[in-house]
Amino acid sequence: MKTALIDLNFMGYPLAIASYLLTDGHECALIEVGPTTTLPTLWKALQTHGIAPEQVRHLLVTHIHLDHAGALGVLMERLPHAVCYVHPVGAPHLIDPSRLIASASRLYGDMMDTLWGEVRPVPAERVRVVQDGERLTIAGRTLLAIDTPGHARHHHAYLDEHDGTLFAGDIAGVRMPNTTYVRPPTPPPELDVEAWQASLAKLRALPIQRLALTHFGFFDDVARHLDELEARLLDWAQFTRQKIEQGISDSELIEALRQYGNREMAERGVDASSYDLGAGYELIALGYARYWRKKLAQGTP
Ligand SMILES: [Zn+2]
User: Fold this and answer.
1) Whole-prediction pTM
2) Residues less than 5 Å from ion ligand 1, measured at CB
3) What is the rounded CA–CA span in Å between residue 169 and residue 216?
4) Å from CA of 62 to ligand 1 middle
């Protein structure tokens, strides 16, 4: 039984998007497939690992954002025996990706094709909806699905119960190898700070031995990592709330958060630019802005 990290080398950059290959010598599974633009890299990695397309049986995505799942439609056409596994809220948008594409286009504009490539529908009969708490027996092990909203409503983390690896998607943040700094990716439109905190509380109650982040890699200081993520999620929430209550514009908010975040990273000697591909300040700030404007309009104290 093996678990391997594949660096999808997104836009030519290492350490931006990972996919995880799970094998037991017979069948194999992928957790996260990346966007269509990184398919050549994924395909080559499967060959390097000696995996034939017929052996790839299971494609799991933590959520349907295009950097995690964009390649699914095209990939399913090339993998004759694969089924894809997805959160109930995400499933309809894999089968008919038109709303997903429209929503991503609002964020990425004319960069859509360059970043993500083609997004094709997945045939409904090859989509397997996974419920919270479900256990999947896959590639020689059991994976526990954990509903983990906060970053997105359609988000699962998967715990490999044989070795305690948590495939965390984006709910455990973004962290570069050989650093301790954790950045919360908080894009619009579904950021929900309270739901995120509840998801982290759920994770803390599980026997997690190491985190496998999509952005990027394995980390085994689980408790410290989750504490730092939550502290920064809340700190940035307070920072952005104050600015928004002062009537700041979106572009000013992006710059203010960039300065605030980068100052702290510089103090810790962390290269800020290495985090921007996984979680850039623009989407982080816009996510908080939308979250707060909605909440403040509802009269939150
Ligand atoms: Zn995401």
Assistant:
1) 0.97
2) 65, 170
3) 10
4) 9
